[in-house]
Every structure is written in C-alpha cells, then in structure tokens.
Structure to design on (533 residues):
C-alpha cells in the first residue's frame, strides 16, 4: 500500500463522508427524532438535483445558490407533506407499516412524475469548480467533492447548533423522547414535528444540489440511496446529528478504501458489513441514546 | 359547587366492553385540595386523563368557564391544567434545568417560535427548582436523579406551566416516609399559590393529611364525596375501598 494512494483514499473518503452526512441528516431528524419513517427522502434529494439542474441549464445558476434559494420551498413542501401524513395516517394511531406504504407511494409518485416531465436521461450541471482539482502535495482535492463537503459540513453543524442551543431545538429533542409529556407541558407536538419535518425536507433539497455536482442524476437514482440514507443514522445513533457525522465518516472512508484497494463493487458489501458489525456490539448506534 | 374551577358532569369512558367511567361528576374549587381515592381499576387515572385530554370520553368537562371537549391536551395545559405522572417522565437526555425551560417557554404561549428571551426563563426555572429543593441539581441530566428527585422534577415541571389546577397522579408511590413528607410539603405549598390540587393516592395517611375533601371512585362510579372524616365513615366506602 503506497503512501500517496492511502492519503488520497482517506481524503476522498472524508470528502464523500461530507456528502453522505448531507443526504442522511434529514433522515436522522425525521426517523430518529420524529419517528416518521420517511423512506421517500431520497426522492426529495433527486427533486433537489433536478431543481438545481434546471436552474443551471436555463439561467446558469450555481447549484448551491439554487439549493439555498429553494430551501424555503422544500421546507414548505415538508410542512404540507407532514400535515397530510399526520391527518391521514399518524393521527389515526401508530401504524408504522401504513406510514411506510405512504412514503413508498410518495417515492414512486415523485420518480414517475420526474420521468414523465423530464424523461429518463441523466442530467448534470456545469460550474467552474466542477472540473477543477487542487493538488496538496501528493493528495488530490477535487472541488467537485470538496465544495459539497464544505456545504454539507456547514449545514450539518448549523443544524447541530440549532437543535442543541435553541429552545425550538430542545422541543424537537423532547418530542422524540416523550410526545405525551411534551404535550402535557402545553406544547403542540404536531406543530413541532411539522416544522422539524420541513427542515428535514429542506436538507434533502440541498443534498440534491450537492449530488448533481458530484454525479449526473436520473429519476430512479434515489432508490440507490435508500440503504445509505438509513444506514448512516442507524450506525451513528438515531436522532444524533453528531452520530450522523460520525456514521457518514465511517461509511465514507470505508467505501473509499474498499473501492481504492479492492474495487468499487466490494464497497457496499464492506460498508454494510461494517454497519452490521458495529450494531452487533452497540445496537443503539455509536451516539445512540 | 357554584363558581367551581373544574366541573365534570357525567363523565363516561368505555374501553371496548369495559366501563372505566360510568358517569362521574366531580367539581373542584379554586385553590381546593381534593383527594381522589379508590381501588386499582376504579377509574381514577382514566378520569384525570379525560380532564387532561389524553383520553376522550363522554359527558362534559368545564374548566375556568371553558368547555374542554374541543381542546387537545396542550390547549388544556395552557388554560391552567397540569398533571404529573405516576411514573416520572423527564426528558432523559436533558438537564434538570432544560426540563423546566420547555414548559416555561411554551405553556400559555401560542407562538413558541417567537419566544427569544432566555434570561427570564432560566431565572424562573431556577426559582422553581429552589422551591422544590432541586436547585443544586439544575445542571444534572434528569436520568441521573433519584426517584424522589424525579418526583420533585415532575412537580416542578407542572408548576412551571403556571397551573390553576394540578393533578398529582400517585406522586407519592414508592417513596419513604421522609420523602413522602418532602413531596407533600411541595403540594401543600401549592395552596399558597392559589393552585387547586387533585391528589390521586393509595397512601391514606398522606391523603388524610393533604385533602380538604375526598372523592371515592369504585368501578367507574363515584360513591362518596365530602370532608375526609365523613367520607371515611361512610359504610359504602368502608365496604368497597377499605374492605371492612
């Protein structure tokens, strides 16, 4: 194993981990804190990719600028979706399987809508930094990965600060621990969950813009990310943003090393084997409560 | 009772074929201390769940002039109904202080996102913790507390929502004699604040010491309601509750 190859694999893994954190932090909120099994999360990521791609093709807009500009729209979409989910499923009792079916439906409806509207061709974006690679000694730093890494880490850390330092954040943590107790303190848990779910979907929109910077996308690509977006929060500990970052780092680096030294086809097997191994010793995840 | 704070009339609740409450009336005046007793399964917790809104039943319940029927639990809390749980339910990953900040911020406020001021909530939370003897443990995680301290925290959270009526559901269960005295002292102090208290309890010594009035439920029906000495001499109560 050569030093430069090792260093490049490590850096690529960490950069990949940043992106992984962006795609899974929303699930950590929805599934880990709100008990909403939003399996359609990857569909909203792809929706974010398409929004960034369309704005890029028609106006030349930078994908990240588009993501930030559209995050209120994704937030509003999340508010509406949760309100609908609550009214039609959640309020009628805890039936996680029916809720799962609801979000599976949303996943496929979104995918089919994108196919009908834009076809099945891959879409990509152009930006000055996408083809640029910085060299730090023997280590390559492709901006195509580095820019999403910076945006993702900034978004994830901001969420961590927001959830741990603000009173709304404390209410979100509380709703995940004991919804009834929270309600009996005068707090409307549905309102708290609705806003937090909106934030979760807004992160998916941003993650989508980062995804289309990293690779071209097509409507059914979201399904490939279902395993990943759930595996990372499970590994890190459901409902823990710090755990999501740690889980993303472990899977990102493991994926990169496996792909570099053993071939890309081994990467998912090693990553998910690592997940199973970790959960065997710590079922609640690395940072689980 | 004219001018009562809480007026429950004909409250009913069925769970399938089981009648948990078969038309119970209960009134509580402002600042009144009421003991609610009865054997296990008599409907005490179901009645207070109907009052708090966590269980929907029949009949009518008015609180401070408001019909509670259309209101979800959090709106009832904002009107001034607080309850503590039989088994304490603190937010385990939060500090004792943060457990109090949440009700202080949100209770009685319709728009929590607009609440930005922090200093006052912290000050008030510390003041309440001082009253219940938990100030020194404000920074501890609530899951690290002893059983009696968890009960105190439960009461502190209820106090923090500025209640007019506090329902203490078996707040004394499993405590030692000295711990019972500590919790009773907190509950008795509520009277000084003008807060009415419904104490659900099996420990008769504590109920007698605390209550100005006692209501007795047996298999979903109220069989007695009045001053303690009268109620405990009631043959029906002796037969059904005390087993004599």
């Amino acid at each position: 194993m050569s030093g430069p190859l090792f260093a490049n694999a490590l850096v690529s893994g960490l950069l990949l981990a940043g992106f992984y954190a962006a795609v899974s932090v929303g699930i950590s909120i929805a599934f880990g804190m709100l008990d909403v099994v939003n399996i359609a999360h990857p569909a909203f990521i792809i929706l974010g990719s398409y929004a960034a791609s369309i704005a890029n093709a028609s106006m030349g807009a930078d994908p990240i600028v588009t993501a930030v500009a559209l995050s209120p729209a994704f937030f509003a979409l999340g508010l509406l979706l949760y309100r609908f989910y609550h009214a039609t499923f959640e309020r009628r009792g805890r039936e996680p399987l029916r809720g799962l079916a609801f979000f599976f439906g949303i996943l496929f409806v979104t995918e089919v809508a994108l196919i009908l509207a834009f076809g099945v061709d891959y879409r990509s974006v152009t930006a000055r930094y996408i083809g640029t690679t910085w060299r730090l000694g023997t280590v390559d730093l492709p901006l195509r990965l580095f820019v999403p890494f910076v945006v993702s880490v900034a978004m994830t850390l901001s969420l961590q600060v927001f959830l741990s330092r603000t009173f709304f954040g404390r209410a979100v943590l509380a709703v995940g621990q004991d919804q009834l107790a929270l309600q009996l303190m005068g707090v409307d848990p549905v309102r708290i969950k609705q806003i937090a779910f909106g934030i979760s979907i807004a992160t998916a929109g941003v993650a989508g813009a980062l995804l289309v910077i990293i690779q071209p996308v097509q409507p059914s690509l979201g399904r490939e990310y279902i395993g990943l977006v759930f595996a990372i929060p499970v590994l890190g500990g459901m409902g823990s943003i710090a755990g999501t970052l740690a889980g993303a780092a472990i899977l990102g680096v493991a994926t990169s090393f496996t792909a570099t030294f053993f071939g890309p086809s081994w990467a998912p097997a090693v990553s998910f084997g690592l997940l199973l191994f970790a959960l065997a010793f710590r079922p609640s995840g690395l940072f689980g409560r | 009772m004219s001018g009562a704070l809480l007026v429950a009339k004909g409250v009913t609740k069925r769970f399938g074929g089981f009648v948990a409450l078969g038309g119970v009336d209960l009134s509580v005046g402002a600042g009144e201390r009421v003991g609610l007793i009865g054997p296990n399964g008599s409907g005490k917790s179901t009645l207070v769940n109907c009052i708090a809104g966590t269980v929907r039943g029949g009949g009518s319940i008015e609180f401070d002039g408001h019909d509670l029927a259309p209101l979800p639990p959090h709106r009832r809390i904002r009107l001034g109904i607080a309850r503590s749980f039989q088994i304490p339910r603190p937010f385990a990953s939060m500090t004792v202080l943060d457990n109090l900040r949440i009700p202080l911020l949100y209770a009685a406020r319709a728009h929590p996102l607009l609440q930005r001021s922090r200093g006052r909530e912290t000050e008030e939370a510390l003041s309440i913790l001082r009253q219940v003897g938990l100030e020194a443990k404000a920074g501890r995680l609530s899951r690290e507390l002893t059983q009696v301290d968890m009960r105190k925290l439960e009461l502190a959270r209820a106090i923090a929502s500025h209640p007019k009526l506090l329902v203490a559901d078996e707040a004394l269960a499993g405590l030692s004699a000295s711990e019972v005295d500590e919790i009773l002292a907190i509950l008795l102090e509520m009277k000084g604040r003008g807060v009415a208290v419904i104490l659900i309890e099996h420990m008769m010594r504590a109920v007698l010491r605390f209550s100005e009035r006692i209501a007795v439920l047996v298999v979903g029906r109220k069989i007695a309601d009045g001053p303690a000495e009268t109620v405990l001499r009631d043959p029906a109560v002796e037969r059904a509750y005390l087993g004599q």
Notes: Chain A has one domain: 27-231. The mean pLDDT of chain A is 91.
